[in-house]
Amino acid sequence: MSELAAAPGRPPPLVIGRLRIAPPVLLAPMSALTNLPMRALCEEAGCGFTVTEFLAAPALAARARRELRKLQPSPGRPFGAQIFGRDPRQMGRAAAICVEGGAALVDLNMGCPARKVTKGCAGASLMREPALAVELVRAVCEAVAGRAEVSVKMRSGWDEGNKNAPEFAAAMVAAGAQAVTVHGRTRAQMFSGVVDLAIIAEVKRALGAVPVIGNGDVVDAASLARMFEATGCDGAMIGRAALGNPWIFTLARAWWCGEPLPAPPEPRDRLAMYRAHLLHYLTIADDEQQAVIEMRKFAGWYLRGFPGASMLRKAIYGLASKEEVLRLVSETAL
Ligand SMILES: Cc1cc2nc3c(=O)[nH]c(=O)nc-3n(C[C@H](O)[C@H](O)[C@H](O)COP(=O)(O)O)c2cc1C
Predict the structure, then answer these.
(1) 35-56 pLDDT, tens per residue?
(2) Cis peptide leading into residue 23 (ω within 30°)
(3) Is-catalytic flag, 42?
(4) Max Cα separation, the chain?
(5) Residue from 25, 26, 27, 30 to probe ligand 1 pocket by mutation (most atoms less than 8 Å from CB)
(6) Which end of the chain is more exposed for a tag (fewer CB within 10 A), N or C?
């Protein structure tokens, strides 16, 4: 396969240490969602790089099977693993395990707003403890010892009065991080309001040549172009818009290569992708019925926006076995 190239006026590939990411458009880590099947489908659709959902450093350091299983690579593709925690030794141990598990990049989560994470004083709450955050980055860099690249994912700050992303990002880079991702919302905003592109631009100015990945509210080619143009960022990360919609990366790749933008998927493409996602999910699941139940949320995202979608979703929600769901899917003519 020939190497993808950027069209004139598009940003160059994203380079983080030895990683070259083209197109410079990444799948955001999303807990309980970006496991191997979702990452693989997004990669096939054109995503430049994917990152696992966050992995708890204490559990990973203890080699808990549940957490280790989330470190599944797509054959032949580099991937990132994200860890969260607040104990430098545990974070170091967890990072080393990610590298053993094949991760080419270890990302430290300093942006998660969820109470169960921030109450344990990890995730976004680390933006209020820069000295500890520096220790964590140092510990991870030391543990990976150049075997993987290291990045930090953060928010714009804790709340409106404490938007410290530019200084915080600079401190993380001084501690050894080779790239940062900024979701342009404060922890207090959670997912509300609009993303603040100006603060991502400020982070980019503060970091100079160090790669910055902009994140938040990229949903189509126009918002992707705006993310790059308004912030000067080196890469863009897409989360919610990829749910039930790996085609967002086909669109991003076409935009980046300067090709005509593809038409939105037809209902039958959506159904086929849901089926492919389910089949892949079943190959990694321990418990078939649990996998069918967990895939219901994806049915909600894939199967919408066409006549009969709501009835089809409801029918799928009522089924508990893989045979029943697959039969329904194969009997549905769209
Ligand atoms: C359901 C869900 C789970 C998420 N889990 C994680 C996570 O594990 N780690 C993380 O850094 N961010 C997590 N995020 C935040 C996303 O990575 C991303 O920063 C955020 O959704 C904004 O990007 P978007 O507007 O493209 O969705 C999660 C977001 C959602 C909606």
Answers:
(1) 999 999 999 999 999 999 999 9
(2) yes
(3) no
(4) 58
(5) 30
(6) N
Element (H, E) at 225: helix 221-231
Catalytic residue among 112, 121, 233, 257: 112
The bridge status of strand 179-186 relative to strand 212-215 is parallel
Strand partners, 212: 180
Cα angle 40, 45, 49; round to 5 = 60
User: What is the pTM (predicted TM-score) of this model?
Assistant: 0.97
Q: Whose CA is nearest to atom 10 of ligand 1?
A: 29
Residue 48 contacts by C-beta under 8 Å, 6 or more apart in sequence? 13, 14, 21, 22, 23, 24, 25, 26, 235
* Single-letter amino acid code for the residue at 241: A
Token readout for 147 is: 């075997």
SS3 per-residue string spanning 242-256: HCCCCHHHHHHHHHH
Report the alpha-carbon distance of residue 177 to residue 170 in Å, rounded.
Answer: 9
Residue the block writes with tokens 């191997």: 36
Residue 143: pLDDT above 60?
yes
User: What percent of the chain clears pLDDT 90, i.e. is strictly above it?
Assistant: 93
Q: Which two tokens stand for residue 59?
A: 């559990």
> Quick check: CB of 43 below 6 Å from ligand 1?
no
Residue where the block lists tokens 């950027």? 6
Cβ contact 140:150 at 8 Å: yes
Give CA–CA dist 8/18, Å, rounded. 24
Position 2 pLDDT exceeds 70: no
CA of 8 to the centre of ligand 1 (A): 31
Confidence band of 113 (pLDDT split at 50, 70, 90): confident
Structural domains in the chain, sorted by start: 14-257 (3.20.20.70), 267-331 (1.10.1200)
> Which ligand 1 atom sits closest to the C-alpha of 240?
27
Q: Quick one: tokens of 211? A: 């790669």
The verdict on the CB of residue 20 being under 6 Å from ligand 1 is no
Q: Identify which of 248, 230, 222 has the alpha carbon closest to the alpha carbon of residue 27.
A: 248
